[in-house]
Amino acid sequence: MDCFIVSCTHSKTYHLGRRHALWLSTVLLCGSLIAPAQKIPQIGDTRAPFSTRATHLLGFANARNNSTGILSVQHDSLHFQQEGKPGAQVKIGSVRGVFLGGDSKQVGGLPMTLGKAAAPFGGGRVVSLFAHKKYDTVSLEYVDADGGIHGAIFQLKKGQSEIVKNELMAHGVTISSHHVQSAKQGAAEVGHEDK
Amino acid sequence: MKTNKYGPFVGRVAALIAMAFALPCGLPGQTASARSSGGSGTSATQWSVQVDQIDANNLDLSYSFQIAIYENLLVELNKTKQFQQVFRDGDRRARKLPKLLVLKTTVEQYTPGSETRRAVTTVSGATKLTVRSQLFTREGKVVLERTVAGNVRFFGSNLRATHNLARNVAKTIKQSPSLGSAVAFGATQAGFRG
Predict the structure, then answer these.
(1) Residue A143 and residue B121: Cβ atoms within 8 Å?
(2) Are residues A58 and B72, on separate chains, in Cβ contact within 8 Å?
(3) Closest to B144 in 3D by CA, of B114, B186, B106, B107
(4) What is the ipTM of this complex?
(5) Helix (H, G, I), strand (E, B) or coil at A134
(6) B126 and chain A: CB distance < 8 Å anywhere?
(7) What is the pLDDT of residue A172?
């Protein structure tokens, strides 16, 4: 498109007057100024901080156990933010390992469990057959300032753990073959749940 | 008049009797307190513990379970207040402590369960974990060795088995009557070695 305009201007500047040439050069100048401006948001999009909804099961810094929030990668740290509470973060450089897994759980929590128990003629059991959902787990191993080893487990939507793993790998976290084996094992566990 | 004559004598006798009763009662009390203070010097509360990472023992135990056992053990051991401090594996502060026990946990048996199966059948789908917990002194003397199990049979997620297991391990350590004397024995052995 740009090339066509340039060729056009070149051909017309010789035939048309100085006024047209000035007008076209103004258009070209404006176009050249706008073009980089259009590219800037695209670059910004690729560098946008990664974030996903996750449930913190245990172990991550000062975050409360079994709490839901946003897990994000900001600059050089992994951040977990609960709604209306101060966030917890761990330096990505201190993460020693990322382990993927998967499991299945019953949905609805305690109210659903009580409801199923109260349902007559074993109706609760039938509900249990369908009221379960698969999820991914991401287990992290990181080191604190004193060298103490910590472990943290997050529960994510199915398929999200790979994205988290890739994001952490992009920030320099190494994942060994043992971790891949764990991921396979996690998948096998989910398969076991299905049986 | 008579009372005035014998009054000082009766008073002295009463004082002597009181002293005679007081001395034998007082001395055992003192020895008991001395014993208790000496005993507390060798009790587990004077010691700190370092929890090592879980050894899966080549079992197909997912890493999330290993992490959950490790983290729950740290929490539950802190709750027992049996140890002065509870350290994580690799903590540099633990290296300087003279009275340090190391808790090693090896998984002996793992039966994967299913929450859905538990909810549907009630009788099957239990997640079962059995571990061997060993408390070592810094010199490698085994102070305590127990096999502990943790299960989830009815309600709760599979990871709840790790919480139950850690609670059982902490309870076992707390209730172990031989821990204080065993620690003292380990300390004397270490003293002889050192």
Answers:
(1) no
(2) yes
(3) B186
(4) 0.72
(5) strand
(6) no
(7) 83
